[in-house]
Amino acid sequence: MREVSINARTAHEQANCAAVEVMLISIDHEALSAPVRLSTDPTERLSVEPLRYGTRSRWNGADPVTDPYFFVLVSATLPSDQEDAPTAFSLTLANVDNDIAKLLRSFTTPATVHMALVMADTPDVIEREARGLHMTSADGDAEIVELVITREEIEAETVPMDRFTAQRFPGLFR
Q1: pTM, whole model, 2 decimals?
Q2: Pairing outcome for strands 36-39 and 144-150
Q3: What are the residues facing 52 on neighbouring strands?
């Protein structure tokens, strides 16, 4: 059973609630000195020049003072439920600055993506998270960047993983 905080439960049960769900996205790659941290909510003003909003959270090892999650407009396309379609979804980021867009499009190997769902008033309490996803592509222009994200292919795993031989499992052959 999945645990849900009291704040999230109260927000879901009330007809009108001021609580806001926030998705925190962390994109990590070997070419980066620090992860790219993005938020779906302008929780607070982070700077005036340049004008930036974002969310401060300790999730995924971030220091809330020096490593905030910067606000971007995000829309999601959920994965298809067809059996032959890959389990991939896309996030379309709008209103990203040119440096982040250029950086995301420059990767030649898949980046690792971690996502967490938090409430805006309790950004350190993780309601739900997905770790170790892979960003397979980042396409776009000056206005938007579309990230295609997928999980590790479980279909590629060998079944059974180990061969039951006398050398590896001697107890089976006594």
Answers
A1: 0.75
A2: unpaired
A3: 47
Cα→Cα distances 34→26, 45, 48, 114, 128, Å: 10, 21, 23, 14, 23
Here the tokens at position 153 are 């292919």
SS3 state at 125? coil
Distance separating alpha carbons of residues 99 and 108, to the nearest angstrom: 17
The pLDDT of residue 1: 47
- Closest alpha carbon to 141 in 91, 105, 89: 105
pLDDT tens-place string over residues 141-158: 767 888 888 876 666 666
What tens digit of pLDDT does each residue of 1-39 get?
456 667 666 666 666 766 788 899 999 988 888 888 999
Dist. CA 37–CA 39, nearest whole Å: 7
Q: Which two tokens stand for residue 97?
A: 């600055």
- For the record, the structure tokens of 53 come out as 């909003």
**How many angstroms separate the CA atoms of 102 and 88, rounded?**
22
